[in-house]
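FW: tagging you since you asked about this chain on Friday. Here's the raw sequence from the shared folder, copied in full. Didn't touch anything.
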Amino acid sequence: MDALKLEAFLLVAEEESFSAAADRARTAQSTISSRVKELESALGQPLFVRSSRQVRLSPAGEAAVPAARRALAALDTVRQVVDEVAGVRRGRVRLGVVTGAEAPELGRVLADFSAEYPGIELIIVSGSGADLEEAVGDGSLDIALVVRSSATALMWEGLLHDSLSAISSSAESETAASGPISISVLERERLIVLDAGAGARGALEAAARRAGIRLSIAAQVSTPGMAEELHQRGMGMLIVPESLSSGRGARIVDLDHAELAVDVGLVAHPGVRSPAVELLLARLISDFTLFPTDS
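HL: got it, structure written out here
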């Protein structure tokens, strides 16, 4: 069982098509088919259910996907460890960034990293916080910048504890409120919640349940610009992380006066991480600032 067979299997699993997998691998469809058949023969089980119109994973194939990803990651780590001994820095790092993230410094850090380590390929994707954490957990991503409101089994490096703020639809919202606002007050408002699968809505609704109230969510939006536009057009009170509130609004507290908040940070697999992943992770932790100040 070699890396080429595992890579062919994962490509077909992701594309649900032998021809699309071949296109991604820039090879012939017959080559992909042959590698998958050889892997199935070695394992003694069909990995796909094939029909004239569809290719889908068999039960054995579904079970094999996460193991195949871990195996390829381990092989990549072996190569990079050997390169490290020889003084060569190369490899690949797959980085996820939560949809709607306002991270102006991230591009600079990644560009500087790439200039210093030109042999390390960066693959950058976006998605919801939940999807990115799942991808890191199953090995399809190496690192992710996420926003979350609950614990994780992954390695976690917190960058910011961000309180949730409520910005009124009235003119008074132009300046920050003098004190916090209770979750109970929000029951009377229509709400626009900025949440790209990051847990802000979950934190709000959990606090509302504890208070015995029901919130009226007019819209859940993944991008700050759209959330702000809906708010400016009078659709409702805006709920955003304090870091995106521009000094407006008031922090939201529950009935016990505890602030509602989400955490911004980096997740990585707690187990095997390649030298290239370790290099980028260390660089992000040391150099990446979410909201830089002018010097």
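FW: The longest helix spans residues 59-85.
HL: agreed, and Confidence is low (pLDDT under 50) at residues 171-176.
FW: great, closing this out.
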